[in-house]
Amino acid sequence: MQCNGRKFPGVLVTYKPNASFTGEDQFGLDVIWPNGNSVKQNNWALEPRLIGTKNLMIGTGYVKCMARYNRWQNDNLYSCADRLTDEARRQERGAFLGSIHGTLNHLLWADEIWMSRFWGTPRPKAGIPESSSLRANWDELKRDRVAFDERIIEWGDEIDDIALAGDFTYYSGAAKRDLTKPKWLLITHVFNHQTHHRGQVHCMLTQAGIRPGDTDLPFLRGQAA
């Protein structure tokens, strides 16, 4: 948990105030550290909400930032791929998913899968084997990518600390069974998966003679360089 700038790993604290309470309250807390040592702290101020987490690696600011980074970089790569012929976009280039078109197809499919789990959006009617060919038409793929990036941003703007702190159970098509993982870990995976496959597309575009624009996160609009 973190309270007033002080961090306590592995501690979950829930505080429920009186229904008539407004403003701040005072409380005392006994903290048991992972090594068994304890410490008592009195008279901490807090607002009436969940103040602790399960030792999260990310926060809501990360989700908002990466959702916008995703949109920025998709626009970067799609605008470059648009300069190629359809044949060049579909050319087998030795990547994990073969071509530029196939990799971008898979990436949108994966985002749709995860958002259907997290947010209840429609689930794509295809599995991993069909993910690279789900949208055969380039213009359709572009249009759906732009629209879905806005939905990811909308979802990211709504997520809160309570949601990040919880566990999440889902059916994994890869593992063929239900899995339960910390939700913050799964959200981190989604953005990591995007970056992984965009890197492959970036390499294929470079090989095709197209140089994408900046990819560094500090150059995302609104982020300090």
Which helices and strands, and how do they pair?
Layout: E1 2-3, E2 6-7, E3 25-32, E4 38-46, H1 60-81, H2 86-90, H3 100-119, H4 138-158, H5 161-165, E5 167-172, E6 177-182, H6 183-207
Antiparallel strand pairs: 1-2, 3-4, 5-6
Q: What count of structural domains?
A: 2
Lateral strand order in the biggest sheet: 1-2
Overall CATH class of the largest domain: Mainly Alpha
Strand content: 5-15%
Low-confidence stretches: 1-19, 21-35, 37-53
Gross morphology: globular
CATH architecture of the largest domain: Up-down Bundle
Number of strands: 6
**Element string (H = helix, E = strand):** EEEEHHHHHEEH
The CATH homology group name of the largest domain: dinb family like domain
Helix content: 40-55%
Oligomer: single chain
- Kindly, what is the distance between the CA atoms of the first and last residues, rounded to a whole number of angstroms? 30 Å
* SS content category: alpha+beta
Mean pLDDT: 82
Report the biggest beta sheet as strand number plus sense, adding barrel if it closes: 2 strands, antiparallel
Instruction: Enumerate how many helices there are, as a single number.
Output: 6
Round the Cα radius of gyration to an integer and report it. Answer: 22 Å
CATH topology of the largest domain: Four Helix Bundle (Hemerythrin (Met), subunit A)
Can you walk through the features of this model?
With 225 residues, the protein is α+β, with helices and mostly antiparallel strands. The chain has 2 domains: 2-46, no CATH class; 60-219, dinb family like domain (Four Helix Bundle (Hemerythrin (Met), subunit A)). 44% of the residues lie in helices and 15% in strands. The protein contains 6 helices and 6 strands, in the order ββββαααααββα. The strands form 3 sheets. The protein has a two-stranded antiparallel ribbon with strand order 1-2. Strands 3-4 form a two-stranded antiparallel ribbon. A hairpin with a 4-residue loop joins β5 (167-172) and β6 (177-182). α1 packs parallel to α6, α3 (100-119) packs parallel to α4 and α3 (100-119) runs antiparallel to α6. It starts with a strand and ends in an 18-residue tail after the last helix. The model is unreliable at 1-19, 21-35 and 37-53 (pLDDT under 50).
